What we know:
It is built from 17 helices and no strands. The two termini are 32 Å apart. The protein is globular. The chain has helices spanning 3-41, 44-47, 50-64, 66-77, 82-96, 98-104, 123-140, 147-187, 189-205, 210-217, 225-248, 250-262, 270-275, 281-297, 304-307, 315-326, 337-365. The protein has two domains: 3-167, no CATH class; 188-365, no CATH class.
Amino acid sequence: MSRWKQGVKKVLNRIFIDGMSGMALGLFATLIVGTILGQIASIGFLADSFAGRLIAYSANLTKTLMGVGIGVGIAYKFKESPLVTVSAGAAGFIGAFAADLVNLGKGGIDALAPISAGKPGDPLCAFLAAMVGLEIGRLVSGRTKIDILVTPIVTVAAGGGIGLLTGRGVAYVTTAVGNFVGWGTERQPFLMGIIVAVVMGLALTLPISSAAIGVVVFAGADSNYGLALAAAAAAAGCSAQMVGFAVASFRENRFGGLLSQGIGTSMLQMPNIVKNPRIWIPPTVASAVVGPISSVLFKMTNNSVGAGMGTAGLVGQINGFSVMTAGIEGFSEPVSWYVALFEILLVHVILPAVIALGVSELLRRVGWIKKGDMKLEV
Length: 378
């Protein structure tokens, strides 16, 4: 491999593997945790209580800090210095709200109006601002005697500046992509159900962040019925990967592997996939089957947080249950809790387990998958 190709590969790995992995850490600690706390606060006996209100306020503020979490998560992943890490968080926060801030122009103190509790902002712009800020900040970090001033100023100015300059453009592109996915799913739910479920399922198993992709692509699912259908298909496809690998590899990994893959991550199988890519067929077939069942047969809905999580921490199921039982105003009626629970269990757990197990056993019989091919390294 030429030096140029090695350089390109290194940059791409840094951005799309390490960078997005760091972004996922930030999303987990802010937006996803905030969403889970919000669901807890809405439980009947807590909803109108003092404790419930405290949890709800904490949840909203946690979601608003998404940009900070993304910046800190990326910097932590890159093992940057403390000053760069904290400053990247500030840059990420600016980036998250950059599009709205720029729209207001010379709004004075009112320019802070878009920043409100419960509103997380734009995750992709936060990612861009944090990445640029820390890459520039690390160049000056530790090189002067007044590092405590120089590093934060350079990091925040570079990252925040890029965020403000590109915020509206980034928001336009992500909105356009989301609208296209929603438009396509509403008109061709069967085909798009397969495509979205398979692509997001593969992304979940690859060493990139399907959670980050989900939050970016399906950001408008709360008000776009087609996008909500697509988000549900994505959640089903991701769940099929995790449950599929967990069940298909049970004879090798037993209950430990069932739990680590079923509610942890199917990414654990990547070393085995490199050795024998055919082991990826069973969960991928399961994704392709449950995607259109979700979007066509049951017309399930979900949101951006649940779309790329699969069964990890049951976040995909919790968010799907919440959206389905609440409905989407102007588009879909709420469904009863027992119907939502049945559909989620069937599409996210039972069908993927049965399909992946059946396909894997068939492939074992024809010799495409051999004993030990899906054994996890302890």
